[in-house]
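> forwarded from #structure-qc
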């Protein structure tokens, strides 16, 4: 269906792609793997018509073509779901899904009945029966917005569907729904290009795998001919040792909450110890992020108590939480965690704006300290954050909050959308922070991540804690049983 022949793309001082070739066939899922900066998104944008190659040629269904724009790609039958969402928050789901080709009546007006019916059909395919086509996108969760992006791409009935990190905001149930839909598309003859940093996903669904490193192809392989270790070696050029982390949890309680109730959660009680990483698992909608935002003073708490370092506290605003020694790395780092058009220095300065002027004079020294400590790859502290890789952006969010010297750090999906090399660095950093005595509440939808890092795992189900598992008793099966409201089966 699609053949790329010796594609190259150059930017000032950067060879984004060098002589990359790729062959995509109908009815197959072709995974594209590589670290951040390997050239994956550039390659996908060339196929989608957003970027023009400097060298090479493209064949579509046997004919040499030039894909001169995103509209030209759509007209060919190429749909793409970008990693960064492109939804209009103030429009309805239906208006977003059919923003390009809304059904129209004979006299040219949009056919609202057909618009809503066709949207409802797509929502049903994605397991979103609880949503209405007329519902505003601004009211949706990150996972629901991601699925609407996919519905938007499916609305044009693509022959080739490109998915860039489609499951990064999804929980296990939503991910499996997506995979079921992809299998249906395969049977219809749709070709699928799939980009993901989640190795388990790649081996679960991919038929073919192409690996990019530093803008160059490391080859294309049948998925059955690769294993996890070989794929990582092709991506990063070295082995990544499997880490087995020690526990640094003490017996000193740094955060205690009792019978906490708020929007999306109720009757939450647990203790977090200094140096402990307490994992927080659960399906999308279980109330994990709502609890995190309430603890940080960003959402109201209706009833219950919070103690920080043995003292009762009430946070009416995030400033109160920061002043008390609590920090929060949100799930949506680009929308809620960073000022993408500002520098690393300015992002770190943002948490000191309420301080005295003389303290702000120390911020450049603090920023440089964390650039070295977290090994943030940026030309200078003045570099615009939006131009950095996802892994380095996430490190800057962490640096910003570590600069406040927190006693408790809440991290929500800390490795979402970053490559395996950067992921390992984040793991090592979190363990180092716990060794320094910081209590960490780790929210993650990746169960292997929780099992690797957490000393205990609290599982939320429908806004409540269904159980807390010590590390030595935890398993993926037990976590999912609690998360879905089942009794844990003895093993």
């Amino acid at each position: 269906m699609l053949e790329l022949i010796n594609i190259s793309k150059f930017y000032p001082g950067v060879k984004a792609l060098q002589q990359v070739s790729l062959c995509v066939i109908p009815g197959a899922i072709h995974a594209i793997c590589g670290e951040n900066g390997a050239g994956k998104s550039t390659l996908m944008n060339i196929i989608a018509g957003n970027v023009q190659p400097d060298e090479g040629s493209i064949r579509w269904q046997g004919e040499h073509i030039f894909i001169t724009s995103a509209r030209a790609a759509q007209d060919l039958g190429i749909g793409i779901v970008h990693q960064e969402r492109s939804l209009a928050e103030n429009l309805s789901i239906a208006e977003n899904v059919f923003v390009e080709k809304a059904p129209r009546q004979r006299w040219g007006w949009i056919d609202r009945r057909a618009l809503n019916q066709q949207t409802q059909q797509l929502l049903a395919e994605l397991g979103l029966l609880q949503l209405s086509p007329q519902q505003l996108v601004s009211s949706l969760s990150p996972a629901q917005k991601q699925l609407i992006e996919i519905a938007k791409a499916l609305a044009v009935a693509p022959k080739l569907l490109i998915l860039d990190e489609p499951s990064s905001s999804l929980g296990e149930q939503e991910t499996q729904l997506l995979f079921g839909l992809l299998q249906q598309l395969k049977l219809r003859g749709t070709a699928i290009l799939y980009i993901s940093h989640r190795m388990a996903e790649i081996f679960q669904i991919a038929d073919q795998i192409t690996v990019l490193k530093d803008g160059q192809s490391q080859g294309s392989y049948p998925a059955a001919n690769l294993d996890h270790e070989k794929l990582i070696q092709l991506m990063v050029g070295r082995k990544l040792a499997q880490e087995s982390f020690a526990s640094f949890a003490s017996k000193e309680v740094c955060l205690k909450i009792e019978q906490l109730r708020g929007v999306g959660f109720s009757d939450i009680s647990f203790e977090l110890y200094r140096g402990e990483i307490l994992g927080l698992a659960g399906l999308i909608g279980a109330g994990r992020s709502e609890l995190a935002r309430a603890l940080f003073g960003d959402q109201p708490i209706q009833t219950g108590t919070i103690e920080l370092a043995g003292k009762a506290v009430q946070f009416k605003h995030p400033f109160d939480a920061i002043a008390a020694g609590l920090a929060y790395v949100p799930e949506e780092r680009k929308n809620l965690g960073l000022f993408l058009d500002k520098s690393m220095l300015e992002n770190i300065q943002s948490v000191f704006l309420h301080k005295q002027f003389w303290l702000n004079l120390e911020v450049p020294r603090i920023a440089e300290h964390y650039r070295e400590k977290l090994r943030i790859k940026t030309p200078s502290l003045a570099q615009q954050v939006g131009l950095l890789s996802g892994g380095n952006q996430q490190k800057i969010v962490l640096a910003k909050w570590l600069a406040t010297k927190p006693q408790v750090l809440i991290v929500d999906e800390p490795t979402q959308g970053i490559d395996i090399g950067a992921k390992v660095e984040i793991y090592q950093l979190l363990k180092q922070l716990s060794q320094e005595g910081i209590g960490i509440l780790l929210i993650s939808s990746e169960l292997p991540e929780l099992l690797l890092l957490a000393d205990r795992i609290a599982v939320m189900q429908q806004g409540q804690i269904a159980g807390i598992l010590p590390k030595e008793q935890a398993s993926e099966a037990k976590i999912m049983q609690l998360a879905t409201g089942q009794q844990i089966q003895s093993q």
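QC bot note: The first helix runs from residue 40 to 47. The radius of gyration is 23 Å.
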